[in-house]
């Protein structure tokens, strides 16, 4: 019965979690892209950011309570737990919105809001936006940096995500960590897309073979 309640909660909360994930991304990115902004605007956006984060903590706790096997739940949701336990580690904070979107989008099939390619595309776009903001935030006023504008940051993120590279390399430690994160994510994204289309082609081949028989 508890597992049924867990699945029901996941189904009902999926849309809200995706919406909050998109809103979280906006409140994180906007003050950086719109720089300079007033202190009051920054403060209000930070409040919104942590309020949304609080909703995800509550959601995780509810799911934990509804799960039949607490051990299995912690094992399958260890990454989500990591982001709850270490909220102020800056790189994790930067990509937290993307992880929450993934968490919200990987519900049971009946609660899936998007197909796999669209989910991967959305994750790629959000990761590009978030890490563009993150890299711009730490590199904008650093001597020797070549990333000073929103355009610079977006172009750098796009090149890094696709593995093309470029001349605009981060000079700060945090910037290099963001770059490493984006490179790893890009490799994973490409592998996921390749695997999905390979699986789709195999299914099409099997379907044609079955028709011939």
Can I get a quick summary?
The protein is mostly helical and 213 residues long.
**Contiguous helical run count:** 8
Average pLDDT rating: 75
Question: SSE order, as H and E?
Answer: HHHHHHHH
Strand content: under 5%
Category by helix and strand content: mainly alpha
Principal-axes shape call: globular
Number of domains: 2
Rg over CA atoms: 20 Å
Tell me about the largest β-sheet: none
Give a verbal description of the structure.
With 213 residues, this protein is mainly α. The chain folds into two domains: 113 residues; 100 residues, Helix Hairpins. Helix content is 78%, strand content 0%. Helix 5 packs antiparallel against helix 6 and helix 6 crosses helix 7. The chain is globular.
Descriptive terms for the model:
213 residues; globular; single chain; 8 helices; 2 domains; Helix Hairpins; mainly alpha
